[in-house]
Amino acid sequence: MKMRNVAITAVGSYLPPRIMTNDELAGIVDTSDEWIVSHTGIGTRHIAEGETTSEMAIKATENLIKRFKIDPERIDGVIVATATGDYPGFPSTANLVSRHFKTKGGAFDLAAGCTGFIYALDVARSMILSGTLKNALVIGSEALSTVIDWEDRNTCVLFGDGAAAVLLEQAAAGGLAPALLRSEAMLAESLTIDPVSRHITMDGKAVYQFAVRAIGEIVTDVLKAGNLSISEIDWIVPHQANRRIISATSRRYEIPEELFYLNIERVANTSAASIPLALSEMEASGLLKEGRKILLVGFGAGLTYGGSLLTWQRS
Ligand code: UT7
After folding, report:
1. Residue in 46, 114, 135, 242 annotated catalytic
2. Judgement on whether residues 149 and 285 belong to the same structural domain of the protein
3. Beta pairing class for 44-46 and 175-176
């Protein structure tokens, strides 16, 4: 019988060991722990010291393989969502991951800013359902510290490095519903990696306002598409950009704030890695039980946004 569901059957993550505190940042730019915590909810972030995006992606995958006893020989496709690939054009970071694990299926990177993981999940899901891929490793990995302007207090306090991976496979039930993927490209220049300086530039206020609306809209529309009410959702896993964005969304759209799983305090904004990092942590702490309904919501550069409903089901 042909299965019509695609589920996340394994997760893994990697955070570089170097932790940078807000107090350390206060020694580099004119800021303070008080300002950063009160304006963003961020306490610390991990910083890759010499490790590349592909190396972190490989370590996240090794963690997945170990935790879920996956035979790497059966991994088919590899999709890496990233804005900070090892090479600016090619080879893709996914090819470097594929080389390490000797995978043979399609391997490519996907660029959709902080929404990249949501986009990549849906691309992988569709490719598995169409028969193009048997299964796929979907990874979010970012070395954002390499594109931060360490003299710009408006941005350098916000970001961190890290990687997380999931394995997507056909399943008998549950798994991922088709995603909602959206673009608001009139605001494209409000969040960039400048092609000349190779630094992140951001109109913080514009992105903040967009983010609150984007999360609210996606939560509303994913619920509508699934014919669900908010009380049927166990967790919302948002892209982790700013705790205040979550609080504002919760107030404006009457979404209980305790539904949002947040780890921004410890890892800051890791762009495409943030949603799978949160999922990996949640799985490790037993929060993702069979049948749980999880609403994934991403937003970021592009500007892009999107989300999907995940019913946790591992087979
Ligand atoms: O992944 C998606 C991408 N990013 C986001 O989602 C970020 C969205 N935006 C935000 O989260 C917020 O807009 C920020 C956290 C970036 C900024 O917070 P804000 O409350 O909007 O601050 P602001 O930009 O209005 O700045 C207020 C003041 C300014 O000083 P003046 O002009 O009032 O004197 C800033 O220069 O805070 C100053 N400021 C800082 N002060 C201390 C900005 N950054 C800092 C800092 N430390 N790190």
Report:
1. 114
2. no
3. unpaired
Burial of 229 by CB count in 10 Å (0-12 exposed, 13-18 middle, 19+ buried)? exposed
Q: How far is the CA of 228 from the centre of ligand 1 (A)?
A: 36
Residue ending a domain, among 138, 171, 204, is 171
Same-domain status, 18 and 81: yes
Residue 157 CA, closest ligand 1 atom number:
48
pLDDT (tens digit, 9 = 90+) per residue, 38-56? 999 999 999 999 999 999 9
Where a domain ends, among 171, 196, 228?
Answer: 171
Q: Which residues line ligand 1 (CB under 6 A)?
A: 31, 35-36, 39-40, 114, 153-154, 157, 191, 204-205, 207-208, 211, 241-242, 269, 300
* pLDDT digits 0-9 by tens, 201-256: 999 999 999 999 999 999 999 999 999 999 999 999 999 999 999 999 999 999 99
E strand intervals along the chain:
5-14, 19-21, 44-46, 77-81, 107-110, 136-142, 162-171, 175-176, 180-183, 191-193, 200-202, 235-238, 293-300, 304-311
Range of the domain at 150: 5-171
For atom 42 of ligand 1, the residue with the nearest CA is: 31
